[in-house]
Amino acid sequence: MEDSVGQNRNCREFILASVAELSSPFSPSAASPGIARFSCDGSAAELELELQFQHESHQAPAPLNLKLDLQAAQVFKLGPAQSVCMLEGSDAGKQTSYSRGVAIQFRNEEESEAFHSVFQQWKKKFNVQGGNLPNGTDVITRKSKFDQKIESSSSKMYFHYYGQLLHQQNMLQDYVRTGTYYAAVMENRTDFVGRVVVDVGAGSGILSLFAAQAGAKHVYAVEASGMAEYAQKLIAGNPLLGQRITVIKGKVEDVELPEKADILISEPMGTLLVNERMLESYVIARDRFLSPNGKMFPTVGRIHMAPFSDEYLFVEMANKALFWQQQNFYGVDLTPLHGTAFQGNFSQPVVDAFDPRVLISPPTFHVIDFTKVKEEELYEINIPLRFRSAVGGRIHGLACWFDVLFNGSTVQRWLTTAPGSPTTHWYQIRCVLPQPIYVMVGQEITGRLHLIAHNSQSYTIYLTLSAKMWGPSAEQGGILQTSSCKLELKEPYYRMSQPQAYPLTQDQQQAQPLLMTQDLEEADGLMQHLSPN
Ligand SMILES: C[S@@+](CC[C@H](N)C(=O)[O-])C[C@H]1O[C@@H](n2cnc3c(N)ncnc32)[C@H](O)[C@@H]1O
């Protein structure tokens, strides 16, 4: 082909009349003749598909050498021989935003057509497992389900973190967590004896070793991070158990196992249950490996929520932005950034262990049944809220925690991260509203907690709480007070102070014993609902 200046196994090139990066204050690039190169690199499992734009001459005023991930790129026609290529980003696949762009001028319309057709062909072919390169080279596979939805910089950091013994130790030393897993497995030996188990995200291999202790016939310990090598070492050092465990390094989305599992065991919970998006991997492992009547340990998770009142926390959050109210900071007026800093502080969920007496209403909960939930249902979680205030006062936001149930055949055991229970490494989280709401005893509080997953393995949180106005204006028609905020679950504010003694109003003191009991009664109901038939 005349327009193609190069074509080897994994590469395709086009000469361009001119190319320039769309103006960016940091990397201006003037238009000058160039090359567009499609290339594919890496192993079949880790295929990198790139579209590279280069100026032909390195003498160009501001030379361009820009590589785009082909999967995240879009190309738009502006004219017969003019196009623009944009690098696309998205929020849970919903809102598309473009971060970089390249203006392309082709030498003629035919070359433009050829470029567009190759662009679409490569994008389409590589989306299909076992597709062929447009030039005929076989490709066994491209990005796995995990890599398609998670940004590689995020997963690199994530697996680097879990690859360190230090962080595995932190989890192992969480006595509530590890002790509850141990009890749940050992008390339900009958579920494990002679069974095939898959440990989803095995880390150090501790849960695989528990399953082997409980009599599992064989355990497949799947771990994606470098921790897999340490797990292998630990398992080899416990030969009586280790002879029934196989460590497999890889993602549960990608690896193949020689047989189906009777039980999945995993610890996929993050802050607010869903942070890290590992529940999705647990569900994918269920669909890939679990036999039809297999069991999942844990079986069900619940997110608990209740409005709270904590004047001390609110003032602390608001005061953090006071720094930006200085008008003469080394001669500089900082106040233009005060509003942004204030908003920024309230976009951080607060992680700490709080005194349950700050709750001003009995909690409600949202159930995620790991045995039934579809992976896609975890991309967006929408929870309507309705509470009745047990006390009067100012609501400063929504307090959240979670628990999970091990629905064993012998014993049903809950692992809880509730306030007032022994503290775990997850603590609890609080979403603080920048504008508190006033309520009277018995008043209804409504709202919504909306979680939207993003490609950095976490969620954007949208919280709204509303209550009817009280006082004289309420009598004249009940105007609604509403307060909302947007928070980033991936960027919490770790506030590890000791639980504080809160001075309670008389109302609060009388209402407290009632607050948690309603939740326990609801838990009882759920247990009955989940009892084996
Ligand atoms: C919270 S840790 C739990 C480790 C261990 N199971 C325990 O209970 O101590 C989660 C582990 O799952 C691994 N992991 C996360 N996503 C994974 C995936 N998609 N495939 C395989 N391993 C994964 C992480 O690297 C990490 O070691």
From TrEMBL:
EC number(s) from the headed UniProt entry: 2.1.1.319
Keywords: Chromatin regulator, Cytoplasm, Methyltransferase, Nucleus, S-adenosyl-L-methionine, Transcription, Transcription regulation, Transferase
Sequence ranges assigned to domain Methyltransferase in this UniProt record: 197-294
Main location (coarse class): cytoplasm
InterPro entries: Arg_MeTrfase, CARM1-like_PH, Methyltransf_25, PRMT_dom, SAM-dependent_MTases_sf
The keyword Cytoplasm is annotated on this UniProt entry: yes
GO cellular component: cytoplasm; nucleus
CDD domains given in the database record: AdoMet_MTases (cd02440)
One GO term (biological process): methylation
Protein arginine N-methyltransferase domain boundaries: 303-456
Catalytic activity field: L-arginyl-[protein] + 2 S-adenosyl-L-methionine = N(omega),N(omega)-dimethyl-L-arginyl-[protein] + 2 S-adenosyl-L-homocysteine + 2 H(+)
Location(s) in or outside the cell: Cytoplasm; Nucleus
Gene3D superfamilies associated with the record: Hnrnp arginine n-methyltransferase1 (2.70.160.11), Vaccinia Virus protein VP39 (3.40.50.150)
Superkingdom of origin: Eukaryota
GO molecular function: histone H3R2 methyltransferase activity; protein heterodimerization activity; protein homodimerization activity; protein-arginine omega-N asymmetric methyltransferase activity; protein-arginine omega-N monomethyltransferase activity
Domain named Probable histone-arginine methyltransferase CARM1-like N-terminal PH: residues: 12-124
Protein name: type I protein arginine methyltransferase
Native source species: Crotalaria pallida (Smooth rattlebox)
